[in-house]
Amino acid sequence: MGNREKPRKSKSSYISLLVIPSPTSEVKNLKIPSWVPKAAALVGAILLLAVSLTAAHYVRGYYKLLDETDRLEAFKNIYRVQQQKIQEIEENAVRIETKIKEVDETDQRVRKLMGIESKGSTDERRNISSRGGGLEARDLIRGRGGADEAGDTVEISSFSRLDDLTQIYLYFDDKLVEERERLAHLEEEVRGHLDYLDSYPDQWPVRGRITSDFGYRKSPFGRRTEFHNGLDIAGGRGNPIHAAGKGKVIRAGYEPGYGKTVVINHGYGYMTLYAHCSKILVDVGDQIEKGDTVAKIGSTGRSTGPHLHFTVTYNGEAVDPLTVLE
After folding, report:
1. What is the CA radius of gyration of the chain?
2. What is the CA 88 to chain-centroid distance, rounded?
């Protein structure tokens, strides 16, 4: 076999550093493997990248925090404005509720003065008619339930303020509809009652001395007893005769025994008769107001002298005028 060359061992590369501590000291030679600077540079680059990424992350977080802080402050401002508006709405709601209750009290006073029956109890009127569940505005505003007539309670403590305001508006929507309907009914009833008062024949037709009362009496034309169905009131010939109440003239002319006579239908079952007139001033079909002059005192028909014979009938039956006249 021929001679073979042995492979050469690779020599490691080194970097020599000459270190001279002082002019008089011995020079020191430091050998550093060549891969160390490369590794140090790589580690440095990695560390620099890590530091840069970390710094960038914190910078982004900082600016994000600033943005969130600004947004939070804006939301706080919006919240404060909303709270002020909610407070104003709540105060207005309480004022409106107070006004509604004042209207309710006025309604009751008017009904009492007019003698009109109240529609429903006060508690029923104060409850929400359908959607409010028997809550009053102050209960809704203050965040607590109200008790209905059966003792059941409605809890609203879990409602948000917006839900509370919605309930309040629903409450007032129902209440205002209810009040409008009730006041419309009251107006209709008051108009009817005022019409009744105007029609009720309680005004004296003439002022004078009563010469003959309602009921049985001795006839002025003989000795027999007869039923007198009205009042005889003395007065001067030609003095005005006034309608005792509002109504419609249904007769105006000469009547046997009564002479010149006017009959007025007042409605509500009442009619009045004015007899022995010297002159009639109205015609059949005329609409008469209480106090209007309808005739003049005279002595026509079966009469002993100038006077008014005044009769009041209710549902066709003669009644004592003194029970009707003021």
Report:
1. 54
2. 18
